[in-house]
Design a protein that fits this description.
With 58 residues, the protein is an alpha+beta fold. Helices cover 17% and strands 28% of the residues. It has a two-stranded antiparallel sheet with strand order 1-2. Strands 3-4 form a two-stranded antiparallel ribbon. The longest helix has 6 residues. Bound molecules: zinc ion. Zinc ion binds next to loops.
Amino acid sequence: MKGRDFNDRPACSYKTMPFPTEVTCPQCGAEIEIWSDEEETHCRLCGYVVFNHERYIN
Ligand SMILES: [Zn+2]
């Protein structure tokens, strides 16, 4: 009963801290901020769905 899983976490969670990335909407050209822990986000201007993995294409 020691809760070891939680105690072993700090160093690891620091590495995986989410960070924002700016991507350009392929549909309207607006700048969209997507966080590294988000799988997808919506363009606030046209509603286009941008997937996180798509940012590697451009
Ligand atoms: Zn857009």
